[in-house]
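Q: For a teaching handout, I want to show students what a protein-ligand complex looks like in token form. Below are the inputs, and the small molecule is iron/sulfur cluster. Please produce the holo structure.
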Amino acid sequence: MVKTIQTGNNKLPDTEKILSILNKNKKRMKMYLRICAHCSLCAESCFLYNTKNKDPVYMPSHKVINSIGRLYKKKRKIDRNLLEEVKEIAWKRCVLCTRCYCPLGVDIPSMISLARTICRSQNILPEFHEQS
Amino acid sequence: MYEFIRGPMAWVSFLIFISGSAYQIIGFFRNTSKQEEFAFSKPSYVQHTRGQPVNKKLLSFKDIKYSIKYSMIGFDPFFSVITIIFHICILILPFLLYEHNAIFEILWGFPLSPFTLPENVSDILTFTIIACIFYFILRRIFIRRVRSITTFYDYYILFIVAAPFITGFLLLHNIFSYKTIAIFHILSVELLFISLPFSKLSHMFFFILNRFYIRNEFSFGKGDRIW
Ligand code: SF4
Ligand code: SF4
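A: Here is the structure, written as tokens, with iron/sulfur cluster included.
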């Protein structure tokens, strides 16, 4: 099973498929990315941020800017390395518990979930057997 | 030059502001749709059915405590107070400033607001705004988590918000050449108007749309729309 997934991973990303997912959600995601005031008020609402020594990489806005934000920036230039990094963020740094609170109404879980969808569409998935 | 930025350019920037905002707001309603039923139960203090609170009696002290504890006031009280004061000041000062009202009375025959602020109060508000922006800059530089997501664009946004208030203050107190500062003041406001609907500052209306209309556990209003 794990072998099959790894073989799938060696392929180049299917840019057209990624673009179609990105375009379908463009209006909403772009609005969220645009209005995020980079204020960091959402930090303490995430239990992972609190339990990981307040490391900024676990702050909800940091996670969306570096996952879905980068995907929208790169568009056609999205490569496997980027998708691997997004995978780390979307699965290892967020559990989609939907507890994050943004005073401006940025829906962080929906953005992380879209990042997961994009990774999944390219067969890029966490391998749960691996040691972290 | 002065006549141009005071006349046609002011109108153009104002039109861009109005049409850009309308474009964003109409786009929001076109891309979201109304939902009748809630698929999940919300805490009683935000429970609504077709816009009516289900049971007003349920709004107990515990609910209020919960809503504050899990809002930004609970997470970061100091910054919350500063940002609330800052936003109130920038929203009221331009409308209640005596000089603005006097100019509009001459131009249009009626003032912007029925009452105005005394000069020392408007000075205090201006100082508060500039001090808050200074604090935002320090925060961006010295607090690790804010620094981790700060880009040059964030400083640019702070600059275009600060510029009208700094030039306005210089203008009121006749510091430097009146005409030059007046040009900079008007230009900075026009820049603010033009960039408002298309930049980060569009949180001005998306804050209301997201928090009042979109279905959310922490919705302030009906929260009956989804994307
Ligand atoms: S997601 Fe919301 S709370 Fe977090 S930094 Fe952006 S605007 Fe601030
Ligand atoms: S959904 Fe993700 S980002 Fe939000 S609080 Fe949960 S773990 Fe943190």
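A: Two things your students might notice: The pocket of iron/sulfur cluster (ligand 2) is lined by residues A 45-46, 48, 60, 63, 94-100, 108-109, 112 (CB under 6 Å). Confidence is low (pLDDT under 50) at residues 47-57 of chain B.
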